[in-house]
């Protein structure tokens, strides 16, 4: 006779075999068999009790973004499961592997209109790459194993619904996880496709390299390509941190959550080398007449964002290295030098506000303190809104530090959960979360989770009493500003009430002591900083080019946004 094992425990052992060491969720009656299994396996897989299932799902997505490993979350039948949706869409749209376990009433109660019974498969059909209800206790470990494989294979969300009675059953202990068979590999680009790209690079007068998160880990290849072909580099927001922000050829980011040098260069580039990205705003910010070389591991993306002249199927960093080997070096030219100068002017303009003592405070002095205390391998999780704009412009990442946010789904409230994930996955590294007051208020209850698990996260809240990002959109559409202004609160005291160390900052001279204390704290910290409700410079609508705007229009724009010593790229190219 074969040995017996509890089906729920067999399932948790599958997660163990795949290297999962923590799972987020909130228990419910429909999930009690799995809770019992988690109790028995608590030394191997840690249960993380969040205070809202959405936080657990967002944290699982952040785990996957930061580590590349599958994130895992659960919700009980009905409301516990439906609360997961937001975080699961974040994972789906940023293409990371997450497994969601859903509770279900007992198999004997299904289809009897039972309490909290929900037909969960249809609800999760759109968000998932794998969506199954377990049909027998014996199949429970098998279905979870299949779900993990599907999440990895498709970089997406796998959903498993578990009738609660199945997890309590004894089954034969014969199932063997397939984790030891899991393999990953690099798609090698074909040389004939690479050779097609070389004439376009040789002929280009104003080329630029645009990178996405598909180039993660490829900094050396990006640098070699940029310098061999004398190309400036721009990036997608999710690629923040791949290239050190101080690199002279790095212009920053495109679109609205963006930088001036990148937007200006992409608008007039005659060649764009587009690598490992699916940037959705290309049609608005890339020169439509530019030649386009696209490199990706997913052939369905070719031509999606811009008419593509050469498509190269393969790993981005590998392709960049091969192109350097095959292609003739381009000398430094006026195009590259003008873009380097544009970047220097931009950095100097931002830095000119770093010691501003305005009240309410500007964001620049706050980020100066964050950069000052940040350790060389710190992790930053930025929430959604104007804080995202400030973070991609003002965080000075060195290439060893990590950064993530909610990219495509752009859901407010990802900051605090992402910080929990970062600190659990990297317990020896310093972690910051950066949130606006609107986003922080959505998830601030889970500061309790940081406190419960003694996670010394530095949570920075930028309070301007506005949904500032949306306020700017209402301004642009010339409508009455409505629904965007927020009631203020003292989030430092909120943090204290939840068990963290709390600071509320209203003056410049309070910044350094608070951040020094945060740096040395062994407990979670909430620093609420009252900042001016001032729109960040709208680099998507620059009024600086004398070829396009009158002197009066340019001066009005400069006065409104405190612009100085920062000519347009067109002026630098004429020098």
Automatic annotation (TrEMBL):
InterPro entries: DHS-like_NAD/FAD-binding_dom, POXB-like, Pyruvate_oxidase, THDP-binding, Thiamin_PyroP_enz_cen_dom, Thiamin_PyroP_enz_TPP-bd_dom, TPP-bd_CS, TPP_enzyme_TPP-bd
Entry-linked Gene3D superfamilies: 1.10.10.940, 3.40.50.970, TPP-binding domain (3.40.50.1220)
PROSITE patterns: TPP_ENZYMES (PS00187)
Source species, domain of life: Bacteria
Enzyme's top EC category: oxidoreductase
The entry's keywords: Pyruvate, Thiamine pyrophosphate
Domain (Thiamine pyrophosphate enzyme central) ranges: 194-323
Boundaries of every Thiamine pyrophosphate enzyme TPP-binding domain copy: 383-529
Keyword flag DNA repair: no
UniProt xrefs under Pfam families: TPP_enzyme_C, TPP_enzyme_M, TPP_enzyme_N
Domain Thiamine pyrophosphate enzyme N-terminal TPP-binding: 6-120
Molecular-function GO terms, alphabetical: magnesium ion binding; pyruvate oxidase activity; thiamine pyrophosphate binding
Claim: Membrane is one of the keywords in the record: no
Enzyme Commission number, as recorded: 1.2.3.3
Record family assignment: Belongs to the TPP enzyme family.
Name of the molecule in the record: Pyruvate oxidase
Organism (species): Enterococcus phoeniculicola ATCC BAA-412
